[in-house]
């Protein structure tokens, strides 16, 4: 070698005298002696010296380029240290002592790997890169994995599981120790979680399952359902916290799933039906917190809320049936059956309000429990007892509220109407409710008994929201009639005041025939004063609306009659027919039933209730002979000179002349509605099978639920009337005839 050329470093000289002696041996000594935190292991000049030696040995020309040899000896150094020093110590340790030692040795290995990478950085930069070899860090980890991890992983996992069980039993553990061991498992996956999952997580899940299986078997025997669920909720919270403290986040869902399966899913029905503390008992005792916990926990498992919701439905149905039985018991005990039973309706409203609150607050408004509530009340609300349907009872309750019979303030009226409409939504006979409600609304409006037009409009808006415009179109028309007719009524009254011939205060309410219920209109013989007023109105009305036909409804009118009995004068608030009858006795004339019938031109079925109201009711302004509570054709009547009352203004009620045939009218309307639906569907489809036609008809009819038999009969009727025909090739198929 010529003078001035760089000195060639032999492999043995460079390795033993420079690298091993000055760096590696010192590094091992420091690791074995224990390194204090913050200690500087190598001075910059020492580190640079070793790095320079490696650099020179790797940059010499062949055959003196020692890159391959140094890469190999880097691995041998690590393997030797692990085999000579680390493994013997670990083999002597057990349980927590093994974990402590492993943590110490693993931390040392990280330090060793770091410094060896620094010393041999040039290898990483060129030799490793150009020869597609594992990096020095990766190679160091691989040696630890192969020599140490593979040998101790089972014992380490067993020790960790034992310590985790100790924490589950309430003992204080070294969480940092477990966390360090978990990090080792994660690192041994070499960039993946494969080692963590296979070598630690799987045994952990199995151990967790076994642990909670034993706890479940113990708790289910000793604890009530609420006590059990408190423990279950605490266990789940603890497992979640455990993951956050020292496990990999990916384990959370798996561990909680195992816990849920073992402590909830396996015993769900046992807990729900547990005698003395199951779901029904909690509902009966209003244990909201326990029910809320039960809901939260069973919501965690697949379909876990289904059996709970079923129990809730059965429970509410049973309570509802008790209320229905209560009404039946009152009727059986002799209480008069009538269409006005506010006690029963209020009990249903209260029941619904209570469990609607439970569904909203306790069960977070979950759709399953909303369905349970709905199904339970559909069953309850459509269970009729006595001669009157629940649709009639509910409509009559609305009538009481809107007439202020219930003595409610504005807010309470609104709340009650809201509650009734909620119950109404469960009715299958919505069309029957609508018919009865329309009749009662008509009476409220015409007799001026309505609480307020705002309350009436509010109720109609609620029904419209529930069933649509077609449901409320007629009753909206009734209110519109009154609103439009008000101005016309005032105009006519002013005209009448200017007419000197008219001696009565007379006003007329014009109604649109299609909106209002149909009423009987007896052709009564009216006093001349009334006839004169009616003639005046007809002339005025015809001048305003020449194309409209007027039909007088005497049974709907009302009058205020000034009557003198002895020295006292009274204002009698009566119907038009009652006023006409009273007028017949104006001259203290005695009339027999037959004479009165001829004078007033009224049929017996109308005259009897009319005279009953005047001579047999609370206020007997007409004297009947002979006395009695029933009207006979042989009776005679005259002005009651002995009548006296403490009140000056007296309202004399009269029984309705209209028979209660709402159900009959609804049945007729249903027939038309079913036929219209069938024709509508067949016109669009032209040809359709029997079952499919039935299904589509049922789908279209929202206001009532017809039976399959009733639909079948309407189909037969339409075939007879040649709207449809049976298909020649299939008798279960129908064709539409244009």
Automatic annotation (TrEMBL):
<keyword id="KW-0832">Ubl conjugation</keyword>
<dbReference type="GO" id="GO:0006511">
    <property type="term" value="P:ubiquitin-dependent protein catabolic process"/>
</dbReference>
<dbReference type="GO" id="GO:0031461">
    <property type="term" value="C:cullin-RING ubiquitin ligase complex"/>
</dbReference>
<dbReference type="Pfam" id="PF10557">
    <property type="entry name" value="Cullin_Nedd8"/>
</dbReference>
<comment type="similarity">
    <text>Belongs to the cullin family.</text>
</comment>
<dbReference type="InterPro" id="IPR016158">
    <property type="entry name" value="Cullin_homology"/>
</dbReference>
<dbReference type="InterPro" id="IPR045093">
    <property type="entry name" value="Cullin"/>
</dbReference>
<dbReference type="InterPro" id="IPR036390">
    <property type="entry name" value="WH_DNA-bd_sf"/>
</dbReference>
<dbReference type="InterPro" id="IPR016157">
    <property type="entry name" value="Cullin_CS"/>
</dbReference>
<dbReference type="InterPro" id="IPR059120">
    <property type="entry name" value="Cullin-like_AB"/>
</dbReference>
<dbReference type="GO" id="GO:0031625">
    <property type="term" value="F:ubiquitin protein ligase binding"/>
</dbReference>
<dbReference type="InterPro" id="IPR036388">
    <property type="entry name" value="WH-like_DNA-bd_sf"/>
</dbReference>
<dbReference type="InterPro" id="IPR001373">
    <property type="entry name" value="Cullin_N"/>
</dbReference>
<dbReference type="InterPro" id="IPR036317">
    <property type="entry name" value="Cullin_homology_sf"/>
</dbReference>
<protein>
    <recommendedName>
        <fullName>Cullin family profile domain-containing protein</fullName>
    </recommendedName>
</protein>
<dbReference type="Pfam" id="PF26557">
    <property type="entry name" value="Cullin_AB"/>
</dbReference>
<dbReference type="InterPro" id="IPR019559">
    <property type="entry name" value="Cullin_neddylation_domain"/>
</dbReference>
<dbReference type="Pfam" id="PF00888">
    <property type="entry name" value="Cullin"/>
</dbReference>
<feature type="domain" description="Cullin family profile">
    <location>
        <begin position="389"/>
        <end position="615"/>
    </location>
</feature>
<dbReference type="InterPro" id="IPR016159">
    <property type="entry name" value="Cullin_repeat-like_dom_sf"/>
</dbReference>
<keyword id="KW-1017">Isopeptide bond</keyword>
């Amino acid at each position: 070698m010529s003078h001035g050329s760089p000195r060639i470093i032999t492999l043995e000289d460079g390795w033993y005298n420079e690298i091993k002696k000055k760096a590696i041996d010192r590094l091992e000594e420091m690791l074995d002696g224990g390194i204090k935190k913050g200690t500087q292991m190598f001075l910059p000049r020492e580190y640079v010296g070793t790095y320079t030696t490696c650099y020179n040995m790797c940059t010499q020309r062949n055959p003196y380029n020692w890159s391959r040899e140094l890469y190999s000896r880097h691995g041998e150094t690590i393997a030797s240290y692990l085999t000579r020093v680390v493994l013997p110590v670990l083999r002597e340790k057990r349980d927590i002592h093994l974990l402590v030692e492993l943590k110490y040795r693993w931390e040392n290995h990280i330090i060793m790997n770091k410094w060896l990478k620094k010393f041999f950085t040039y290898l990483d930069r060129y030799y490793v890169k150009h020869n597609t070899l594992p990096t020095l860090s990766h190679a160091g980890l691989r040696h630890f994995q192969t020599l140490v991890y593979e040998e101790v992983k089972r014992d380490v996992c067993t020790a960790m599981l034992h310590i985790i069980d100790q924490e589950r039993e309430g003992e204080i553990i070294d969480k940092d120790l477990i966390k360090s061991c978990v990090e080792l498992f994660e690192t041994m996956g070499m960039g993946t979680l494969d080692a963590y999952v296979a070598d630690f997580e799987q045994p952990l899940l199995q151990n967790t399952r076994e642990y909670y299986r034993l706890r479940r078997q113990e708790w289910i025997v000793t604890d009530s359902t609420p006590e059990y669920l408190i423990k279950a909720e605490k266990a789940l919270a603890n497992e979640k916290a455990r993951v956050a403290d020292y496990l990999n986040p990916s384990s959370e869902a798996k561990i909680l799933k195992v816990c849920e399966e073992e402590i909830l899913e396996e015993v769900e029905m046992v807990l729900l039906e547990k005698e003395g503390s199951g779901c029904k008992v909690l509902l009966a005792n209003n244990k909201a917190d326990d029910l809320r916990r039960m809901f939260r926990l069973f919501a965690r498992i697949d379909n876990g809320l289904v059996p709970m919701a079923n129990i809730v439905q059965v429970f509410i149905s049973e309570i509802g049936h008790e209320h229905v039985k209560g009404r039946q018991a009152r009727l059986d005990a002799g209480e008069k059956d009538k269409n006005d039973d506010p006690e029963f309706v209020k009990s249903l409203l209260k029941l619904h309000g209570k469990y609607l609150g439970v569904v909203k607050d306790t069960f977070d408004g979950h759709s399953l429990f909303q369905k349970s509530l709905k199904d339970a009340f559909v069953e309850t609300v459509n269970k009729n007892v006595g001669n009157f349907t629940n649709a009639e009872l509910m409509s009559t309750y609305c009538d009481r509220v809107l007439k202020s019979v219930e003595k409610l303030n504005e807010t309470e009226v609104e709340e009650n109407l809201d509650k009734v409409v909620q119950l109404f939504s469960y009715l299958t006979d919505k069309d029957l409710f609508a018919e009865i409600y329309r009749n009662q609304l008509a009476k409220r409006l015409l007799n001026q008994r309505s609480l307020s037009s705002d309350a009436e409009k509010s109720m109609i808006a609620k029904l419209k929201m529930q069933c649509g415009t077609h449901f409320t179109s007629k009753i909206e028309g009734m209110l519109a009639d009154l609103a439009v007719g008000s101005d016309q009524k005032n105009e006519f009254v002013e005209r009448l005041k200017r007419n000197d011939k008219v001696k009565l205060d007379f006003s007329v309410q014009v109604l649109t025939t299609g909106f209002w219920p149909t009423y009987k209109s007896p052709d009564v013989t009216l006093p001349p004063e009334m006839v004169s007023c009616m003639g005046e109105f007809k002339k005025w009305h015809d001048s305003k609306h020449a194309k409209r036909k007027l039909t007088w409804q005497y049974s709907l009118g009302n009058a205020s009659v000034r009557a003198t009995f002895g020295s006292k004068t009274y204002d009698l608030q009566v119907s038009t027919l009652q006023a006409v009858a009273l007028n017949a006795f104006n001259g203290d004339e005695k009339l027999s039933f037959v004479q009165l019938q001829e004078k007033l031109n009224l049929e017996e079925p109308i005259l009897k209730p009319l005279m009953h109201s005047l001579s047999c009711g609370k206020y007997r302004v007409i004297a009947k002979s002979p006395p009695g509570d029933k009207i006979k054709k042989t009776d005679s009547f005259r002005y009651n000179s002995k009548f006296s009352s403490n009140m000056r203004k007296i309202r004399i009620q009269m029984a309705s002349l209209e028979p209660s045939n709402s159900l009959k009218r609804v049945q007729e309307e249903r027939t038309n509605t079913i036929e219209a639906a069938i024709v509508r569907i067949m016109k669009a489809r032209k040809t359709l099978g029997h079952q499919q036609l039935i299904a589509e008809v049922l789908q279209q009819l929202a206001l009532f639920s017809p039976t399959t038999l009733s639909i079948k009969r309407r189909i037969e009727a339409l075939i007879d009337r040649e709207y449809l025909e049976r298909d020649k090739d299939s008798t279960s198929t129908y064709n539409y005839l244009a």
